[in-house]
Design goal:
With 322 residues, the chain is of the alpha/beta class. Helices cover 26% and strands 21% of the residues. The N terminus is likely disordered.
């Protein structure tokens, strides 16, 4: 989402209008898979991340850029990561990584957005002990050609970027060598990025993913045939969303067969609160941090804190099936 709210809303409305005619079983353009009458893979029941303890201290945050490419599709990726040094302050360019091995969260921006638009939220995830990798998509980012149907190609972009990011763990001389835990990975995204994220658990299932966080998302174009190993999902949606109707987000959430929860903001819109600090963002960030601590670190105490953070200050309601 752009900080220039009106263009972002118009572009997101175009996404909805363009995808509404697509089949719920649509495949990304260029995919070799054709729709089939064969039974879809079914979802399993049990999360697979081993029990553990998430770090409780806050980290300093580093930031760097990767220049990736998938079959001619430029995919620059912004990486935020736990860094050595004192916590607090702005993310530091190319700072030394903190000691430890950290789960990875892939984040997908909304239409006409860029990763840096979400820096307030994503740096909080990094400070809590996660490496956050956010691609800039070639056709739906701010300044691109605005081809909204290219959203259907973005799940494959995210999977490619994940492969390249995880490879840094073994790359000689890379600052993140030995710092990435490829067995603990989540996907998250906002608006068109929420569509992308749902697609990674349905039509373009990436089996490396252990959890998902969907902000103001819908299943239009990617369907709700959730498949593979259980991957708990957290949905976040404003009830006054003027772009992606709250009911559409709720409908996708209702189809999730795994442990799940939905954080609903009665006064929330399409997601402007994600872009700058405020009471709503603090509830969203604290809730999502505890969700990621539970799903990626296997921290049972974090799971117990999720509902407390979600309902703090009467800003949101929480449907809890975790």
């Amino acid at each position: 989402m752009s900080r220039r709210v009106t263009p972002a809303l118009l572009a997101s409305a175009l996404l909805t209008a363009s995808l509404v005619g697509c089949s719920a079983d649509a495949r990304p353009a260029g995919s070799s898979q054709a729709p089939s009458a064969e039974p879809q893979p079914t979802a399993s029941a049990t999360p697979r991340v081993a029990v553990g303890t998430a770090p409780q201290r806050a980290f300093a945050v580093g930031v760097r850029q990767l220049k990736l490419n998938r079959d001619g599709r430029a995919l620059p990726v912004t990486l935020w990561y736990p860094a050595a040094g004192d916590a607090g302050g702005a993310a530091k360019r190319s700072a030394k990584a903190a000691e430890g091995r950290f789960p990875v969260v892939m984040f997908s921006h909304g239409l006409t957005g860029r990763p840096e638009d979400y820096a307030t939220l994503l740096t909080r995830w990094a400070a809590a002990g996660f490496v956050v990798a956010a691609p800039t998509f070639p056709h739906t980012s701010r300044g691109a050609d605005g081809n909204v149907l290219d959203v259907l190609n973005q799940p494959a972009d995210v999977s490619h970027a994940l492969t390249e990011v995880l490879a840094l763990d073994d790359k000689a001389g890379d600052p993140l060598r030995g710092r990435l835990d490829g067995d603990r990975v989540a996907a998250a995204g906002h608006s068109a990025g929420g569509v992308t994220t749902i697609g990674l658990f349905t039509a373009a299932r990436d089996e490396r993913l252990d959890a998902g966080v969907v902000f103001a998302g819908t299943a239009l174009g990617v369907g709700t045939a959730f498949a593979g190993a259980a991957a708990p999902q957290l949905f976040v949606h404003g009830e006054l969303d003027e772009v992606v109707d709250y009911a559409a987000g709720r409908a996708a959430y209702d189809k999730v067969p795994w442990p799940k929860a939905m954080l609903s903001l009665p006064k929330g819109d399409h997601g402007r609160a994600l872009l700058s600090d405020g009471a709503a963002l603090r509830v969203v960030s604290d809730t999502s941090v505890e969700f990621l601590r539970w799903t990626l670190y296997g921290d049972a105490k974090a799971k117990g804190r999720i509902s407390t953070d979600a309902t703090r200050g009467d800003i949101a309601t929480f449907d809890d099936h975790l």
